[in-house]
């Protein structure tokens, strides 16, 4: 259950929590986790995007859209939260990378033009109460044989840092049910099988599943208590799949 959350109320919460200082601090390549655990594998899975039409579904402050544009992609970023979208558009005005930013709920995508060669949905699906239509929209926006890459907080290790810091190991007592994860904006726990089975139901072919671990040297340099948990266990799940040709 999603504790009464709707997509609209979740979007409003994300928009309200968009603080300028945090947006600026993550404008180049995201936060620590995105820099070291998510971006490298997402970019590897997407491959050479030069000249490709790419949808950044749930683009947030636009940092990954900008990284893709730097690599030669023709990027459309879709973001429903007004505060995040305004920042992304502001950066596009400064940089002029040719990224087109559209305000829309991923569950109700507007006409975005020609089908995309690739769609990336980075750390978004676990934040959407009614997530299945959003995943379907991503798949349906792809050309035949197009590539989908998405990442979520790993459903088996969502509280990794706090658990490791407190216990020196990971502990969990709930996995198979769906529930809300409290935070500055909501996330929702679902088992990994929910995401993979929905991909299969949409006719996608799984290409690769990545459970990235943190480089021990990066962990040691950070000096953050409990960060060694990220070396031993994956806090994130990254999936690539393709639509039928």
Structure description:
Residues 55-150 form the Methyltransferase type domain. It comes from Saccharopolyspora oryzae. The chain contains ten helices and nine strands. By secondary structure, it is an alpha/beta fold. The chain has a single domain (7-242), classed as Vaccinia Virus protein VP39 (Rossmann fold), CATH 3.40.50. It has a seven-stranded mixed beta sheet with strand order 3-2-1-4-5-9-8, with helices on both faces. Strands 6-7 form a two-stranded antiparallel sheet. The model has no long low-confidence stretch (mean pLDDT 95).
CATH fold node name: Rossmann fold
* CATH second-level architecture: 3-Layer(aba) Sandwich
Strand order of the largest sheet: 3-2-1-4-5-9-8
Distance between the ends: 36 Å
Name the helix and strand elements from N-terminus to C-terminus, one letter apiece: HHHEHEHEEHEHEEHEHHE
Averaging pLDDT over every residue, what do you get? Answer: 95
Radius of gyration (CA) equals 17 Å
Organism: Saccharopolyspora oryzae
InterPro entries: Methyltransf_11, SAM-dependent_MTases_sf
GO molecular function: methyltransferase activity
Domain Methyltransferase type: 55-150
Question: TL;DR?
Answer:
With 245 residues, the protein is α/β, with parallel strands linked by helices.
């Amino acid at each position: 259950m999603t504790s009464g959350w709707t997509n609209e109320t979740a979007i409003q919460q994300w928009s309200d929590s968009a603080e300028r200082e945090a947006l600026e601090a993550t404008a180049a390549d995201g936060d620590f986790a995105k820099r070291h655990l998510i971006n490298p594998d997402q970019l590897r899975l997407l491959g050479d995007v030069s000249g490709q039409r790419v949808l950044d579904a749930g683009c947030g402050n636009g940092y990954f859209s900008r990284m893709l544009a730097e690599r030669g992609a023709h990027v459309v970023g879709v973001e429903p939260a007004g505060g995040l979208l305004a920042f992304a558009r502001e950066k596009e005005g400064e940089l002029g990378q040719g990224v087109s930013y559209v305000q829309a709920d991923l569950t109700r995508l507007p006409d975005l033009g020609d089908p995309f060669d690739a769609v990336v949905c980075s750390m978004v699906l676990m934040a959407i109460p009614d997530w299945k239509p959003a995943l379907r929209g991503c798949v349906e926006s792809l050309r035949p044989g197009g590539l989908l890459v998405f990442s979520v907080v790993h459903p088996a290790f969502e509280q990794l840092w706090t658990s490791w810091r407190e216990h020196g190991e990971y502990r969990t007592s709930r996995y198979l049910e769906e529930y809300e994860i409290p935070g500055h904006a909501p996330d929702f726990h679902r088992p990994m099988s929910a995401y993979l089975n929905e991909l299969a139901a949409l006719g996608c072919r799984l290409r690769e599943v990545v459970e990235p671990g943190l480089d021990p040297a990066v962990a040691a340099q950070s000096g953050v208590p409990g960060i060694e948990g990220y070396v031993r266990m994956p806090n994130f799940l990254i999936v690539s799949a393709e639509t039928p040709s």
